[in-house]
Design brief:
Length: 222
Amino acid sequence: MFSKRLTTLICIAVLSSAGLTACVPLVMGGTAVMTTNVALDRRTAGAQVDDQAIQLKARNSLNQALSEQAHVSINSYNRRVLLTGEVPNEAERQKAAQLTKEVENVREVFNELVIAPASTYSERTQDTWVTSKVRTEILRTSDLPSKSMQVTTERGVVYLQGLVTPREAQLATDSVRSIGGVDKVVRIFEIISEEELQKSLQEREARTAEGPIGGNLGGPNL
């Protein structure tokens, strides 16, 4: 049952060409990896807070509504929610999506749940390992906004979320698709234009020049 997933915070030393070290949370089951550097995230501060609240509220709602045979991982990025995992039947699959849509501030739901027995511990461990390798590759790839991307792995399928340009989306896909253990890459990116990105960076620089970063962080308020 997804409510019994083991969630642990571990610090992974990731060596990139720039010698970068990142501390990231791993969620066992959905194996989502997300950096915690708020200032470099393209989401607004409000969106980041909403994403945390969405995940908590959706998890509580699904925990009460679904059977113990369900194993569901919930990952929200910029108020767009990805559901992955396994449920015993189509009725529960649809129920999970509907209940998630009803959570406050949810803009969109991507229902990637499959009708199958819950994944085994060994499968989830493998997914966690794949996620860490994908995340490492993203961190070491030049021109990828690692702080604005989220990775989830389920049964060898890698889901990519984030606020990226078309060029960055393609670069990310090309960078991770050949990694061992990756069976398929599914892009759930929210695409922004190069112009929107440049405007966002200029606004960030202006806020930084004015003093301590305030409440509205990140990129376009989408």
